[in-house]
Amino acid sequence: MNTDAHAARRRALFDRIGDGIAILPTAREKTRNRDTHYPYRFDSDFWYLSNFPEPDAILVLVGGTAPRTILFCREKDAERETWDGFRYGPAGAREVFGVDEAYPCGEFDTRLPDLLAGHPSLWFTLGHDAGWDARVTAALNAVRAQRRAGKQAPTVLHDLRREIEHLRRVKDTTEIGHMRRAAAITSAGHVRAMQRCRPGLPEYALEAELSHEFRVSGAAGHAYPPIVAGGAGACVLHYVNNDQTLADGSLVLIDAGCEVEGYAADITRTFPVNGRFTSAQRDVYEIVLAAQAAAIAALRPGASFIDDHDAAVRVLVRGLVDLGILQGDIDGLIEQNAYQPYYMHRTGHWLGLDVHDAGEYKDEDQWARLESGMVLTVEPGLYLRPDAAIPEALRGIGIRIEDDVLITDDGADVYTTAPKTVADIEALMRHD
Ligand code: GLY
Ligand code: MN
Ligand code: MN
Questions:
Q1: pLDDT digits (tens, 9 = 90+) for 373-407
Q2: 11-21 pLDDT, tens per residue?
Q3: How far does the centroid of ligand 2 lie from the alpha carbon of residue 402, in Å?
Q4: For site-directed labelling of 42, which of 87, 188, 341, 356 has its Cα 20 to 30 A away?
């Protein structure tokens, strides 16, 4: 286990908190129904700093001249481990995860007042979880009640998660390694779906091809609910039912990505169900592909987060004019947002532990400047819902093309690889 990367992230946070103390609980287990739980997923911020996978864990970073990291976690329990599986226990966790001290989670409430006392500031995110808010507040009050004994409670509260989110915006090499692996597995999943696609299959059969590739390759599973949308279903941005039949002559849009070590890939491909684009489908497809190329060309360190969106919109608007859907001058149409009925989302988002990853998009009131190590998606689309404003041959065509991009020292690395040119898709899908 690479504990160095996590220790380095904690050091970066210690630099920010100074003499303060930070408290970060992981996610809770969630009941699905009766005795069944949703598959457990740790809290992303907690995982980023600890790599510790179990529920009921809390990280406490005690700042000062000799900073120390404390983990509270479940105790070893032979009976519970028989039912639910292995637990590290405090001693095991200390050894494996490189924290300075570890205690049973049941001791958190009694130990916290002493830990808080004497620190000028507390770093904790109020409002994230009411249960934790109450426990931390109770500990603060316990210190305040000991004022006559000379104890001092923190007087300043900082939003801890906002600080961690800021760190998470630039990925380290360990993170980039996980993201490249997630991207490789996801790319293979999209290839498999293209190869197995046939008219008459249900959408969920392609979802199953992706799930198969993800799990057989060692990914944890899907990083977000996959979209497999045939025909006009592709114009519904968050379509997830995946239960319709894939029709001959239509397109299918797949937006799916796996999760590796907590990190997401996020790829969209749109391709013909029968393996051959019609000329109308190809016309729209080439516009979206050109918009994506223009957006990617705008990505480099120092560029603004919005530059690639603006580049994509310009190509999409010119395309909408060429298709006869919009009329007028390009700048005027962009100014009036005339494209928004057909392109209603932004061209990308940060990517990392969360598919829509942590991190501000504006610093002060300026769009964020791209830096080496940032990762974002580039995902332009056109959604031509079946309505009278659209030429008949184009009605119901929905296309998005999405790749994942790492900003490098001198440009951008598109590290997702599933085929996306018309020629490459048709060659891959040829069934001779
Ligand atoms: N898969 C979610 C997105 O593309 O934003
Ligand atoms: Mn995306
Ligand atoms: Mn996506």
A1: 999 999 999 999 998 889 999 999 999 999 999 99
A2: 999 999 999 99
A3: 7
A4: 188
331 CB neighbour count, 10 Å cutoff: 10
Q: What is the pTM of this model?
A: 0.96
Cβ neighbours around 364 below 10 Å, total? 5
- Locate 354 and state its tokens: 């969360």
Q: Residue 431 has what pLDDT?
A: 80
Measure the CA–CA gap between 230 and 244, rounded to whole angstroms.
7
Measured by CA distance, the residue closest to atom 4 of ligand 1 is 266
The DSSP result for 203-245, as a single string, is HHHHHHHHHHHHHHTT--EESS--EEEEGGGGGSTT-----SB
Domain spanning 3-168: which CATH class is it, in words?
alpha beta
Q: Where are the beta strands (DSSP E) in 348-422?
A: 362-363, 366-367, 375-378, 381-384, 397-400, 403-407, 412-414
CATH fold match for the domains 3-168 and 173-429: no
Q: Which atom of ligand 1 is nearest to the CA of 349?
A: 5
Distance CA 431, CA 152 (A): 74
> Is the CB of residue 57 less than 8 Å from the CB of residue 71?
yes
Q: Whose CA is nearest to atom 3 of ligand 1?
A: 266
State how far the alpha carbon of 296 is from the alpha carbons of 250, 291, 423, in Å. Answer: 28, 9, 20
Q: Within 13 Å, how many C-alpha atoms sit on residue 423's CB side?
A: 0
Cite the active site residues. 35, 238, 255, 266, 345, 349, 356, 379, 383, 400, 402
Helix, strand, coil distribution of the chain in percent, nearest 5: 40, 20, 40
In the structure encoding, which two tokens stand for residue 123, read together? Answer: 């770093």
CA distance 291 to 232: 21
Tell me what pLDDT residue 389 has. Answer: 84
Q: How far apart are CA 432 and CA 428, in angstroms?
A: 11
Contacts of 323 (CB under 8 A, 6+ apart): 283, 284, 287, 391, 394
| Ion ligand 3 residues within 5 Å by Cβ | 255, 266, 268, 402
CA distances from 21 to 45, 99, 117, 219, 390 (A): 16, 15, 10, 35, 59
Structural domain 173-429, CATH architecture: Alpha-Beta Complex (3.90)
**Helix (H/G/I), strand (E/B), else coil: 113:** helix
Q: Are 69 and 61 in contact (CB under 8 A)?
A: yes
Amino acid identity at 317: V
Domain edges within the chain: 3-168, 173-429
Judge contact between 113 and 143, C-beta under 8 A: yes
